[in-house]
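Tokens as discussed.
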């Protein structure tokens, strides 16, 4: 159930950004729909393969910060074909990063307190969703929260699945009588021959690569490490790079390690037995494929009540948020740096096209380094 919920969270929280990003670099509506289909199916297959081979809950996702960057980039010279060429180059850069060991070493040196603080900052806004739901839809929000609390007191493992079923019931009950999903079906893949333009490589490929590495892969590995999993970064960089190169002609932008939804697949919500949590990565992959094949249908359902869908996601991540706050504040000597890392990350403010999660990690690491140097000098 955690894997399915992770897939639902990914779709409801960011699919619109992905479509806007593709449209922003010149994709037609059909090409944008094809891109969403390609992203969903390929990241599903990658999640299944990696989770099965590593026996870890490795979730592959699209780059939401990267899509936001594309949305404001403008149509490059050469149109969407040039953008597709830039996507291919981004994949090449990911493959190169997989071959360079310093990148993998950098990922493995993230302190636990900073990783916890960054994760807490990432989850903070999403965990506020139940409060927003109660403000906008009082009785529905209250019913969802009470269900979560009541079932959690009885059996914590069943709290999220039962609450999710209640939420789905509320959405279906509020569905307009004349609502039809017919127009949302029938997504077809559209092939676009890549066109390689130097301006698009510099203006799209390089920034997209940097944003994806800084805003998705670094937090993603940190979250897995926080939950006791340490997959080798190089194979993931290489595989996601190859996946990007192969699927780019169908409109897919870039693939990377999941960040926010990784907490659902790797945390306690995925089950008490850590050795079996890789099954949540597999189930999320299967869900991505199904959602991709019927992307329009899923999107139409989620749009009926995004407030309630976000509420169940926020409740599901409460445990991960609480554990992250505890991990961030546990080490007294690193508490101040971790607190600042949390604040910067939770602000949600991006700088130079890079998300707040990366800057939170950088600022926290900088403060921690200075503190250690001053301590040695005394």
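Sequence:
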């Amino acid at each position: 159930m955690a894997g399915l919920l992770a897939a639902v969270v990914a779709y409801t929280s960011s699919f619109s950004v992905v479509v806007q990003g593709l449209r922003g670099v010149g994709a037609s509506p059909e090409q944008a729909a094809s891109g969403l289909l390609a992203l969903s199916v390929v990241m599903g297959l990658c999640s299944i393969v990696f989770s099965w081979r590593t026996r870890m809950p490795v979730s592959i996702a699209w780059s939401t910060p990267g899509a936001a960057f594309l949305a404001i980039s403008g149509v490059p010279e050469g149109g969407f074909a040039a953008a597709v060429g830039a996507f291919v180059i981004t994949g090449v850069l990911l493959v190169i990063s997989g071959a360079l060991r310093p990148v993998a070493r950098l990922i493995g040196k993230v302190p636990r307190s900073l990783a916890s603080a960054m994760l807490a900052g990432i989850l903070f806004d999403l965990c506020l969703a139940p409060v927003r739901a109660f403000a906008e839809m009082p009785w529905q929000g209250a019913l969802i929260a009470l269900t979560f609390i009541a079932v959690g007191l009885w059996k914590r493992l069943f709290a999220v699945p039962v609450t999710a079923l209640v939420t789905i019931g509320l959405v279906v009950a509020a569905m307009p009588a004349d609502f039809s999903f017919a127009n949302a079906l029938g997504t077809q893949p559209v092939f676009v021959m890549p066109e390689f333009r130097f301006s698009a490589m510099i203006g799209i490929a390089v920034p997209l690569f940097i944003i994806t590495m800084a805003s998705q892969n670094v937090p993603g590995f940190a979250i897995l490490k926080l939950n006791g999993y340490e997959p080798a970064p190089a194979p993931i960089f290489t595989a996601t790079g190859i996946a990007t190169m192969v699927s780019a002609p169908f409109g897919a932008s870039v693939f990377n390690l999941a960040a926010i939804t990784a907490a659902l697949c790797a945390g306690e919500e995925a089950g008490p037995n850590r050795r079996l949590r890789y099954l949540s990565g597999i189930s999320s992959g299967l869900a991505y494929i199904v959602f991709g094949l019927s992307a329009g249908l899923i999107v139409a359902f989620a749009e009926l009540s995004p407030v309630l869908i976000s509420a169940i996601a926020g409740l599901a991540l409460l445990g991960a948020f609480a554990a992250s706050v505890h991990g961030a504040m546990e080490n007294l000597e690193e508490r101040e740096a971790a607190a600042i890392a949390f604040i910067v990350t939770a602000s949600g403010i991006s700088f130079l096209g890079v998300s707040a999660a990366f800057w939170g990690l950088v600022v926290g690491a900088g403060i921690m380094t200075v503190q250690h140097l001053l301590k040695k000098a005394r």
